[in-house]
């Protein structure tokens, strides 16, 4: 232990300071290495997340486009059915106009033939023919409008159902 006394005290302090400084330098270097590793891992994680987000967005966009195409196709089909229904309604209305004309012709013919019948019989028969003719005309008009409304409603419901079925596959 004699040789230890040969080294001055300030040298021991300097040696201790150098050792502490060296240890601290090693710790700072290790911290910098850990920080660099953490930054790299964070950059890799961000890249992975952005790539996953891009894939999810592309998949979502594709699904949205598929659903929109299905909805557009079902809408087109429904519009075709409605157009067909409207064409049939126009045809039915023109036939109804012809039937109304025929009813009016029969009424006129009935009036002409009723001139020979007694007044009392003529009144009763004329009023019955007029009432029945009026009822027939009114029921024909209502049936046409109800049939058109029912057809539109049915087509809209079927289109909605087909769209839902196609989208839930």
Describe this structure in words.
With 169 residues, the protein is mostly helical. The chain has one domain (34-167). It has helices spanning 2-5, 9-113, 119-167.
Strand and helix map with partners:
Elements: H1 2-5, H2 9-113, H3 119-167
Helix pairs in contact: 2-3
Give structural attributes.
93% helix, 169 residues, 3 helices, rod-shaped, mainly alpha, 0% strand
Number of domains: 1
Helix content bin: over 70%
Task: Enumerate how many helices there are, as a single number.
Answer: 3
Distance between the termini: 90 Å
Structural class: mainly alpha
Quantity of strands, as a count: 0
Largest sheet: none
What is the average per-residue confidence, as pLDDT, rounded to a whole number? 83
What is shown here, in short?
It contains 3 helices and no strands. With 169 residues, the protein is mostly helical.
């Amino acid at each position: 232990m004699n040789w230890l006394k040969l080294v001055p005290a300030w040298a021991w302090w300097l040696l201790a300071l150098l050792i502490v400084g060296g240890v601290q330098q090693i710790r700072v270097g290790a911290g910098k290495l850990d920080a660099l590793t953490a930054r790299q891992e964070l950059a890799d994680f961000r890249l992975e997340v952005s790539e996953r987000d891009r894939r999810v967005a592309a998949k979502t966009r594709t699904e949205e486009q598929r659903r929109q195409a299905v909805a557009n196709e079902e809408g087109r089909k429904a519009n075709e059915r409605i157009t067909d229904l409207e064409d049939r309604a126009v045809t039915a209305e023109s036939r109804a106009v012809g039937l109304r004309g025929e009813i009016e012709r029969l009424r006129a013919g009935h009036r002409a033939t009723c001139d020979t019948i007694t007044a009392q019989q003529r009144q009763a028969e004329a009023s019955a023919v007029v009432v029945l003719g009026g009822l027939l005309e009114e029921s024909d008009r209502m049936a046409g409008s109800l049939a058109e409304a029912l057809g539109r409603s049915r087509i809209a419901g079927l289109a909605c159902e087909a769209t839902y079925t196609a989208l839930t596959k």
